[in-house]
Design a protein that fits this description.
Layout (H helix, E strand, L loop, with lengths): L1 H16 L10 H4 L7 H17 L16 H23 L3 H20 L7 H24 L9
Helix pairs in contact: 1-3, 3-5, 3-6, 4-5, 4-6, 5-6
Length: 157
């Protein structure tokens, strides 16, 4: 099932990456890559965040002390998550799915970078809960955005 979803994601994201009025060259190597602007990359980002939630050692706490979250990586994710309603409105107005696809790619890149610097496991509980809430928020948005373009978000790879 996972490989089917990844294959569909690869094709859908490749197709929606370009504006509707532009032609693009179909390239299997580019589509199936896990790096760069591809469907498998987005699915991997979602699955990685799901794995983080399962293995974090703490539960998602909506009352976590978010004042403990500081730094450029946090700021970038918070700003991207906050932009999601505007991205949806823009996508609806322009009828260009490329808007939401590019947004998801930006969010996935920001999350990937942040995961290297903002560890959750092995941190004091208050910091771990705050960071997990940040990553949970990003995962929820990514899941919603994947669903909006007709894809089934996968939870493990």
């Amino acid at each position: 099932h996972t490989s089917d979803v990844l294959g569909i994601s690869a094709i859908v994201v490749q197709d929606m990456l370009a504006k509707r009025i532009k032609d693009y060259e179909f390239d299997w190597n580019r589509i199936l890559s896990f790096e760069g602007a591809t469907g498998p990359y987005l699915q991997y980002a979602h699955a990685r965040l799901c794995s983080l939630e399962r293995k974090a050692g703490v539960s998602v706490n909506p009352d976590a002390d978010v004042s403990l979250l500081t730094g450029d990586h946090v700021y970038e994710i918070v700003m991207l998550v906050a932009q999601y309603p505007d991205i949806l409105a823009s996508t609806l107005q322009s009828l260009e799915p490329t808007t939401i696809v590019h947004y998801m790619l930006d969010l996935a890149r920001a999350v990937s970078s942040a995961l290297e610097h903002l560890k959750v496991r092995g941190q004091p509980t208050d910091i771990a809960e705050a960071r997990l809430l940040l990553f949970w928020s990003a995962r929820a948005v990514l899941k919603n955005a994947l669903t909006m373009i007709g894809l089934e978000p996968i939870t493990s790879m």
